[in-house]
Structures are given as C-alpha cells and as structure tokens.
Design goal:
The chain has 539 residues and is of the alpha/beta class. The chain contains 21 helices and 11 strands. The strands form 2 sheets. A 6-stranded mixed beta sheet has the order 1-2-11-10-8-9, sandwiched between helices. Strands 4-3-5-6-7 form a 5-stranded parallel beta sheet, sandwiched between helices. Bound molecules: 6-O-phosphono-beta-D-fructofuranose (F6P). The site of 6-O-phosphono-beta-D-fructofuranose has 14 residues, from loops.
Length: 539
C-alpha cells in the first residue's frame, strides 16, 4: 500500500488518525512486548547518535524514548500519511489552515525576513513593525517623553494569555540583553494586586501602558486598563491617554475606549494569540532588547519554521517530537509531559508552553467535527531544574504514573565568568544524571550489591524505563530562544495535523467566560458557591 495520501486541498487532513494504515501498525506494536530502555541502549551503542537530530542550533535527543526502529519507521509513515509537513508549509505561507474559524494562520508569514507578504494582514503587519521599531528606538534613546515632558523609562504591558505569556517569557529570558534604563513589567489580571505589583514604584509621568488584547474584549485586560488609567490620571491628569498604547486586531474597539489611531498598533486577525509574540504583541520585547535583537528572534523562528516545513520527516525535529507525543499519549497512554528547563532564564517557558500546547491541542473533535478516536493534548506542566528535582521528581522516579519529561539544557551561560560557567556545568550534569536515572533506574540486585539492608531494598529500587527527551541549546540568544519557541510551536501544529484537530481555535474557553459575564451582569442566577463567597466578603 502506498504510504502517502494524494494531496487534497492544502488543508490538514481532518478526520481521525485511525484512518491512516500506519496507526493500526503502531497499535499492534504498542500492544505487544516492548524492550526496556536498558535493553534498547544495551543492544545499540550508537542509539544516542542515531536518535539525535539537529534543528538549526538546537539538538534534540530522542534516544530515551520508547522507540524501536520498527516503531519509528511506522511513525515516519504516519507523518507522511497525515501530510504533516504540508500543514507546516501552509502555516509558513500564511494559508487558511484554521478550518473552524475559516481563517489563515499567519504567525509564520510574519517572520519572513525578506518581508515577502503572504497571508491576510501580513503586509500591514510589516508596516507596523516599522512603527514599533521607531517607538522602541525613541524609548531606548531617551527621546520618548510623556505628557509632562518626562522621559519614558517604563513600559507596562496589560494582557493575558497570548498577550502576556510569550512577551513575558522572552523579556525575562533575554534580560541580560535588556536596556538598563527601561523597566518592563506585565500585568495579566483582574486581581488588583496584580496591577498594583506591576505599577509599584513606577512614576505615571514616565510610564507607558500598553493595553494588549487581540479582541479588545477580554475582561481581565480591560479591567486592568481601567485601573491603570486611574493611576495615570493621578499622575498626569487628563493627559492620561497620552501614556496608553493599544495592540489589537480590533482597532474599532480600542477607539471606543478613547485610544487614538496614532496610538494603536494593529495585529492581523489571523495571528493566533498564543502564536503572537512575533507580532506587535512583542512590543515590550522590542523595547527591552532593541529592534535588531527582536529581528534576530524572528529570524531564529523563521529558520526553524522553514526546517519544519521543508525537511523530510526522518530529519525533522518538530515532526519527530510530535510523533513521539502521539506515540506516548495515543498508544502508550501517557497523558502528561513534564517540561523541565535547566535554566533560570527559562523559568517562564512552561507557562508559555502550557497555553501554546493545551489551548491548541485540548480538543475533542477533529477539524471536520468527527471524533478523533484517540487522546489529544497531554497535560503540560513543569518547573525549572534543579528546583523541580526537589519538588516533583520523586514522583517521576518512583511514582506509579509514567510521565515523559522534556529536559531543556543551555550549554553556555549568558554571562561568561567562572561562577556562571561552573553553574552551567553543574546544571548540565544534573540534567544528564536525571535523564539516565529515569531511563535506567536501579534494580533490586544493584541496590543489594551496594550493601543496602534488605528491609530497604524495595524503597531504594528505581524501576527506570521512564522516557525523556533532551533539547540542548548552545546558549540563550534571541536567535536560539526563537528557535526553541518555534520548535515547540511547530511540534504543536504537527501534533494537531497528525490527530486531525485544529490547533488554532479555542472554543473551550468561551463558555466559562460567557457564564462569568452573565453572573457579573446578573442575567444568570448566582449559584450557592457565589452567594457564599459574596457573604464571606461582606463579613
Ligand atoms: O484564553 C483565551 C484567550 O482567548 C487566548 O486565546 C488569548 O491569548 C487570551 O484569551 C487573550 O485574548 P485577547 O488577546 O483577545 O485579550
């Protein structure tokens, strides 16, 4: 049987993955006996090399996954049968891959370094980049002033979800490259404490507030905007609006809030919130690290986008990662992935990835409305190593659930001094040790051979055979961070393409939002829970 479906209409295949013949082969293999990771390594000394793949400056190691070469072969066929790289090409070109919203996805097209426009709103977005760069340069050079003539020295971005997590991650991760005289903060919440913390110690006269909301209807962001305006008004009176910018795909709604056209940076409707850091949503990043470094971030993303769309599946890191995710969840029943970056600067990586992955893959219907007939998105969680080792690794090593781990390591520290180099080495040895301990464990006989008291042998035994992936960056730069983020984006899109689901919609968050609105407006009766909370507040 041919292992490649004929091209259809450029859209992802949207029925259940069960339709692919490779799925049935994999199902059979997953039900049969499978060698342990110890056996796989013992029988194949070159396994690390054979299951390692380069992706631009990144290296991805899959040797500690439960993959035999037979399984891998069928996974490759599955990727071809599901035409996964066609979908990634569609995203690269800004095509209409978002079926349920009848929209393109243009985040990839925005990263075209030659600015060749493809996809709706992309040309306009390139012009917006120029406005952003001008603004960023004027803030960084000290030329930008507020209503009272004071220099702008702080930018506070109000936004939630995709309007927060990407820019917050990048700004935090590249803090070592940030302009020393410009403070960047974020506030993502309705909770007044959140905004208070973001504004703490800042002077309204020297602060720019960016209301970042693709829809400009998000209650969290609009509430924060009201709070920020009140704070600005105390500082600069009726010129408060001079200190506000809007980033949105709904300029009319921003105008309704009194924000003038010259203070609105428009993003295309077809850029998904969780994929939007490379649009005007990334303004704080550009202000922090400068337009050139922002460009390097996008260039890094673009390189990985091109590799993800263009490489054969056997050498394609994003597709291989997606295949492993589908194998682990769909066939081996592992419903969560712990993501552990061994770098303090990547501490916001997991929260960013949680939205990217779970909002994209948390679906229970295919693009065409049919049942995917297999588990879809895994639960993503995690924290930085080594903190995670002292928090949840006990469960990973000896708990009853098998949780695949993504280890992310950075070889060179951002600061080139002895202390940082030593720290980077200790982090890497911990990463390597944890990956091996999970994979190979420690048998009862090995424990006994160490002279451990028989009463404690069971306690000191590690089952091992616990899978992990390693992703290594040479160092953390705008380019490599862009590469890492794009790799995970493309892995997410590729997983969706394999499963036939739409990674670009998020209908699942609408119901709760609407119900909260109904309760707030009194059009729905208060539940007992809400009555109790209100009475507690009133005392
Ligand atoms: O959480 C739901 C969501 O719609 C996300 O997809 C989005 O990133 C976030 O809310 C914020 O939306 P907006 O940018 O429109 O305020």
């Amino acid at each position: 049987m041919a292992d490649v479906n004929p091209p259809l209409d450029g859209r992802p295949i949207d029925g259940s993955v069960h339709a692919a013949s490779a799925w049935a082969e994999l199902e059979d293999l997953s039900e049969g006996p499978s060698p342990s990771l110890r056996d796989l390594f013992a029988g194949d000394p070159a396994r690390d090399d054979r299951l390692g793949v380069e992706c631009a400056d990144l290296w991805v190691g899959l040797s500690r996954q439960h993959l035999t070469y037979e399984v891998l072969g069928h996974l490759h066929v599955l990727a071809r049968q599901r035409r996964v790289t066609d979908t990634l090409t569609g995203v690269l070109l800004g095509e209409a891959v978002n079926g349920s919203e009848d929209r393109a996805a243009v985040h990839g097209a925005l990263r075209a370094r030659d600015r060749s426009p493809s996809g709706p709103g992309v040309e306009e977005a390139f012009a917006t980049f120029d406005r952003m760069a001008e603004l960023a340069e004027s803030i960084r050079s000290g030329k930008a002033t507020g209503a009272t003539g004071q220099r702008i020295t702080a930018l506070v971005q109000l936004g939630i979800g995709g309007s927060h997590l990407g820019p917050a991650l990048v700004t935090d991760a590249l803090r070592h490259l940030a302009h020393p005289d410009v403070t960047i903060r974020f506030s993502a919440g309705i909770d007044a404490d959140d905004l208070d913390e973001a504004l703490h110690g800042l002077d309204p006269a020297s602060t720019l507030v960016v209301a970042c909301s693709k829809s400009f209807t998000t209650i969290e962001t609009l509430t924060a905007l009201d709070g920020a305006l009140a704070w600005l008004t105390i500082g600069v009176g009726d010129r408060a609006m001079d200190h506000v910018l809007a980033v949105t795909a709904a300029p009319d709604r921003a105008r309704d809030h009194g924000i003038g056209d010259d203070r609105i940076l428009e993003i295309p409707l077809a850029v998904g919130g969780r994929f939007s850091v490379g649009s005007a949503v990334g303004l704080p990043v550009m202000v922090a690290i400068g337009p050139d470094a922002f460009d390097e971030l996008l260039a890094g993303m673009r390189v990985v986008d091109s590799l993800s769309a263009g490489l054969p599946v056997e050498e394609n890191a994003a597709v291989l990662l997606a295949l492993v995710d589908v194998w682990n969840h769909g066939h081996l029943g592992r419903g969560s992935v712990a993501v552990v970056p061994y770098a303090h600067r990547l501490r916001l990586f997991t929260p960013w990835l949680q939205q990217l992955s779970m909002e994209s893959l948390g679906k229970r219907v295919c693009q065409n409305g049919s049942d995917p007939e297999t588990p879809t998105g895994a639960v993503i969680w995690g924290a930085t190593g080594t903190d995670a080792q002292h928090a949840f690794f006990q469960l990973l090593h000896q708990g009853t659930d098998v949780v695949p781990v993504d280890f992310i390591g950075v070889a060179r520290p951002a600061v080139d001094d002895d202390r940082s180099r030593k720290g980077a080495e200790v982090l890497m040895t911990n990463l390597a040790a944890q990956a091996d301990a999970l994979a190979f464990g420690r048998t009862a006989d090995e424990v006994r051979a160490d002279g451990v008291d028989e009463n404690l042998v069971a306690h000191r035994t590690f089952p091992g055979d616990r899978p992990s992936t390693a992703i290594l960056l040479p160092e953390l730069t705008p380019s490599t961070l862009g590469q890492l983020m794009a790799l995970y984006e493309n892995r997410t899109v590729a997983t969706a393409a394999l499963l036939g689901i739409n990674p670009f919609d998020q209908w699942g968050v609408e119901l709760g939002k609407q119900m909260a609105l109904d309760l707030a407006e009194g059009t729905a009766p208060a539940s007992e829970l809400l009555r109790r909370a209100r009475s507690l507040r009133e005392g």
